[in-house]
Write a structure and sequence with these properties.
The protein is mostly helical. The chain has two domains: 121 residues, no CATH class; 128 residues, Farnesyl Diphosphate Synthase, CATH 1.10.600. A two-stranded parallel sheet has the order 1-2. The protein is globular. It comes from Microbacterium oxydans. Keywords: Transferase.
Amino acid sequence: MSGSPARPQNDGALDRFTRTAEIATTDVIRTYSTSFGLASRLLGRRHRQHVRNIYAMVRIADEIVDGVAAEAGLDGSAQAAALDAYIAETHRSLRSGYSSDLILHAFARTARECGIDEELTQPFFDSMRADIAGDAAFTAHDADSHERYVYGSAQVVGLMCLRVFLRDETRTDAELATLDHGARQLGSAFQNVNFLRDLADDTERLQRGYLGGSERLTDADRDAWVQTVFGQLADARASIPLLPKDARAAVRSALFLFAALTDRVAKTPAAELYRRRVRVPDPIKAALAARAVAITMLERDR
């Protein structure tokens, strides 16, 4: 399949199984996210499949708590049990390097090659578990729980990707600190602008208040969150030149896209955000990706 890594076809059963697993993760990102799918295609070949494997693992966990399990008829306790089983199998696969679950098998290969361990996966799963409402009619986050949720659901995913990009690289301690901060800030920006664009679905279907607790956001609240996101994007932008060159165009493309999305959110009344999902048209996405590639081509290699 297009986008899957080229490997010899006369290899053993495990390699064949791993190839199949990575076809599955490529299909997940293609199905669920045009934006990240586009950005991943801009990554160097040595990074591309690893990032797709990470995305697929976190996407499946997110789907367990965001409605798929509920639509299948699982109540809150059954959803929690499904998530716990997924967590247990993820961590078993990290230890063994194998899972009968194709997505987790592919993720385990990436995690073991790139140094991703439970220090990053467990906070992610903790945030996913927080999305299972249980007996609560509405889940309202305050400032502290918002910060914890964003760290687990988004910042650690940025750190996972950073471990992919740096696995064959050498950086100073100061550079690593800048890169870690940039990865976390980029994850936060992505998550916070998605909270803004998804206000309608989060509050009505999922019964969650990520940004304003149980209160509806005002235009002033929206403006404050927009400024927060732009600050996070600025921090992330400053770290991009420290990335290996074959990762920069993809990261820039994603950053440009979410900056454009934030611009559109900033111009949309808060009341309207509760009625429709703001998006960036595909031709603009393509233009932003081309701009990211052009900027990166003019930079020197590290």
